[in-house]
Write the structure tokens for this entry.
Amino acid sequence: MTEVLEAVGDAIGMERVGIRFSPNVYTQGVDDSDPIALFTAVAHRLEKLGVPWIELREAHQPTSAGAVPTVPVSPAMRPLYSGKILLNSDYDGPSARERMAEGIADGISFGRPFISNPDLPERIALGARLSPGDTSTFYSGGAAGYVDYPTLDRVEAA
Ligand SMILES: Cc1cc2nc3c(=O)[nH]c(=O)nc-3n(C[C@H](O)[C@H](O)[C@H](O)COP(=O)(O)O)c2cc1C
């Protein structure tokens, strides 16, 4: 991690660099037996390097893929790292607001809801229903399922 961050920071300036972790779920063969110890060490290192933001895919309940999370690491990282912390995984508007109110995250990021709701910010602002994604087109490699979900005005007009 340090070598990659330093190399990218040297090339483009550390103020343009962010990094994402999936700290508390077994992901694609990657797991850790002691995530709090590891990610507090990571937080110290990120602070020293001056990395301006990080994103944590930090599940709070079993994921839709069935992975069971261990403890969240963001509460332990927050006091050690002064950059922005974005949290991710399985949020909608209300649950994102609830998480933000806990005072750890600087922002919440959205993956699948952004694929299936091209107007996601407007929908969240309005409290409108979110369209579910079509999982059969995820990772498909083509445009179908990535550029053809309707905006809310088209849903309502249909
Ligand atoms: C089609 C698709 C591709 C993804 N590709 C990546 C990826 O390349 N790297 C990564 O870290 N996460 C990837 N993710 C995971 C998302 O970034 C995100 O963490 C996950 O969907 C959970 O957030 P969500 O509940 O807001 O969708 C992908 C997810 C989907 C659905």
